[in-house]
Design a protein that fits this description.
This protein is of the alpha/beta class. The protein has a single domain (about 15-265), classed as NAD(P)-binding Rossmann-like Domain (Rossmann fold). Helix content is about 40%, strand content about 15%. It contains 8 helices and 9 strands. It has helices at about 35-45, 60-70, 85-100, 125-145, 170-190, 210-215, 220, 235-245, and strands spanning about 15-20, 50-55, 75-80, 105-110, 155, 195-200, 205, 235, 255-260. The protein has a 7-stranded parallel β-sheet, with helices on both faces. The longest helix is centred in the middle third of the chain and has 22 residues, at about 125-145. It is globular.
Amino acid sequence: MGERDPKRAARRLAGRKVLVVGAGTRPDDDPHAPVGNGRAIAVLAAREGADVACADVSVTAAAATAELVGAEGTLGIAVAGDATDAEQSAAMVAEAVRGLGGLDSIVVNVGVGLGSGLEGSSPEEWDRVLSLNLRAPFLAARHGLPAMAEGGAVVFIGSVAGLRAATNSPAYDSSKAGLYGLTRHVAKEGAARRIRANLVVPGLIDTPMGRQASTKRVSRTSSFERIPLGRQGSAWEVAEAVTFLLSDRASYVTGQSLVVDGGLSAV
C-alpha cells in the first residue's frame, strides 16, 4: 500500500493541533527509500486537517517534515530537541504550544534497538534503549498532558516486540512491553479531562529503519514469509491507525492497543 490520495482525505483532524515527537525519517542513501513512520504520521495528520509541530532530535529532519506538512495546506513547524532529556522535552511541548497556538494531541514515535542477547547487551546499551523507548514517552506525557486541551488524545508507537521476544535485544523487547503499562496509566490520568491514550503496535514495516534492521538481523527478513497478508506494511498504514485514534471516530477508545502487523502476531 502506498501513500493515500490526498483527495480521499476525510479531514478527520480539522482544527487539531498535533505534536509528533520523532517526526523525522532516518537518513538513507537510497533515493527510493520509503518514508518513516513519524514523517508519514505528521503528513497524514496534516492531510486530515491538523496543524503539526514536527519534533526530532535532528533539526534538519524536523524541518523537512514540517515543509511537507505545509505543502498539505496546514501549519507545520519544526521543533528540535532530545526527547530523553527532561528539560528539552518540556521545551518541545512549550514550543509546540506557542507555535501552534495550543495543543490537543501528542504522538510519540521514538525507538532504538541495541544489544544481542543478555550476554551481548551492556548495561549502557540497556540504559540507552530504555531511555529513548520508555523514558521519552513518559516525559512527553508528563509535560504534555498539563498543556493539552480537554478531549485530546495521546498515541504512543510501540512494536510487536512488546508482545513476545521478537528480537534478540532484551532491552528493546522489554521497553516496548513497558509501553503497554505507560499507555494504561496515561489513559487513567487523562480521563478526568477526557484525554484519551492509546498504543499503536506495528509489525514488520518497510521503513528506512526497518530496512537497516533487516541488514543486521537475517531473522527479520525470514519473518516476512510468516505474515498472513503476505507482505510488510507501510508507514502510511501505521499513520492511518494513528490518525484514527487521534480522531473523534475513536472517542470511546482509551487505554487500548491497536496492532498493525498483517496478522503476524495472531498466528
